[in-house]
């Protein structure tokens, strides 16, 4: 096993909301897919701690739904996450560090967001929502 040069130090969830739709009809079809999601990520280089040889980064991610008026959807949700990362040596050859952090840091946070949304909806009346995997 080889550790990634990008390490997630911690993440926080400053905002999360999830509501069950009381008018959802499980007998009717409903649209679900990546086209129903809005995902944004902002990457910022941070001041590295003293005696740290690499760089520190933050990734702020927001995931929300883009529902149409009257859409038969079991839940509405939105989640915001902020991840703090350390990027040390060992980047792949010719890798641009900011892009490396954007792709891999966003992937790590998205995985955490998928679990948060699954966990919240699993306790709702319509069962769990499990977001599709995504590439960044």
Write a structural description.
This protein has 136 residues and is α+β, with helices and mostly antiparallel strands. It is 19% helix and 36% strand. It has a four-stranded antiparallel sheet, with helices on one face. A hairpin with an 8-residue loop joins strand 2 (37-46) and strand 3. The relative contact order is 0.26.
List key phrases describing it.
single chain; 136 residues; alpha+beta; four-stranded antiparallel sheet; 1 helix
* Helix and strand element order: EEEEH
**Which percent bin holds the helix content?**
10-25%
* Number of DSSP E strands: 4
Could you tell me the strand content as a percent range? 35-45%
Mean pLDDT, all residues: 90
As laid out across the biggest beta sheet, the strand order is: 1-4-3-2
Number of distinct helices: 1
Short summary:
The chain is an alpha+beta fold.
How is this fold's topology laid out?
Blueprint: E1 6-20, E2 37-46, E3 55-65, E4 75-87, H1 97-122
Antiparallel strand pairs: 1-4, 2-3, 3-4
């Amino acid at each position: 096993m080889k550790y990634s040069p990008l390490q997630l130090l911690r993440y926080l969830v400053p905002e999360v909301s999830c509501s069950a739709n009381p008018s959802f009809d499980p007998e009717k079809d409903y649209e679900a897919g990546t086209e129903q999601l809005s995902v944004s990520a902002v990457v910022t280089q941070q001041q590295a701690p003293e005696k740290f040889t690499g760089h520190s980064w933050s990734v702020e991610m927001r995931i929300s739904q883009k529902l149409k008026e009257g859409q038969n959807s079991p839940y509405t949700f939105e989640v915001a996450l902020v991840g703090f990362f350390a990027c040390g040596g060992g980047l792949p050859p010719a890798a641009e560090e900011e892009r490396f952090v954007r792709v891999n840091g966003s992937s790590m946070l998205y995985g955490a967001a998928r679990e948060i949304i699954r966990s919240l909806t699993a306790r709702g009346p319509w069962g769990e929502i499990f977001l599709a995997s995504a590439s960044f």
